Amino acid sequence: MIQITMPLNFLGSVYREIRQALVDMGEMFDLLEQPAEVKDKPGAPDLKVSGGAVRLEGVSFGYDPARPILHGIDVDVPAGQTVAIVGPSGSGKSTIGRLLFRFYDVSDGALTIDGQDVRDVTQESLHRSIGVVPQDTVLFNDTIRYNIAYGREGASFSEIEAAAKAARIHDFVVSLPEGYDTQVGERGLKLSGGEKQRVGIARTLLKNPPILLLDEATSALDTETERDIQESLKAMGKGRTVITIAHRLSTVADADRIVVLEDGVVTEEGRHDDLLARGGKYAAMWARQAAEEDSEEAA
Ligand code: ATP
């Protein structure tokens, strides 16, 4: 009996890891319906993360070979640094996230983590090493405790609580009559956008991945909540490699580096101040967004 249940347990935990990564990515990229297109190489080793440096070297990719989306791009994310990818809608930002998770294989070039090509390691170890904080955290119809614990199987209650405190959702949770046992989701208590995102942050903190992929905070949050969430995300990024996929610019100004992607090509990169001083595409995008925000505030 033991001989049978051990492998089943093992498979179960692998399955849960993959499922979790798929749920996270599904939230972020609408991937739930997508068939797995890539397979582990026979005997592939696990990814070994030392610092968490991510590199795209001459990466080209198209969902359809006849329509290339990324054209030989180089992006260097040194271990422990934060790199923001910005650019117009459809420029290929989210596609980079999908390639990092190896939901697709690059058609040319390579994507490496600490020097290991993502095609050469197990997907399970790859997914375990990367935490995703999507714009819109999907909650399971279960308790808050379960929804946070989903970040790591077997987490103790004090670990769950510590993650909730770090994500600044603990005080809210204990103010509810049933505390951590409160049912949430479709059939339970409806959480606000900011509260849901904090549950997502707590879940990711519990997973404790060396690499974070952030989809920037949703515009559905009010400015104060968004600023607050940004603070939590920034705190979570300390000591980790962070790739922020930014659909707006307001949140990327203090990234270590900003990469501007246009039509699948890197057209500018540097720090916020340098890019503003250059007076190129980024500066123009920044000026346009500032004007839009001013007119929204005036309205
Ligand atoms: P946004 O800021 O609007 O989210 P983005 O820069 O993240 O945009 P991507 O989602 O990477 O853009 O999309 C880049 C291009 O790839 C788009 O033209 C899109 O239509 C196409 N694309 C995205 N996902 C798929 C898919 N699953 N199959 C085919 N084409 C896709």
Automatic annotation (TrEMBL):
Sections of the chain in a coiled coil: none
Annotated compartments: Cell membrane
Superkingdom of origin: Bacteria
Residues spanning the membrane: 1-15
Ranges for domain ABC transporter: 54-288
Name of the featured protein: ABC transporter ATP-binding protein/permease
Annotated source species: Maritimibacter fusiformis
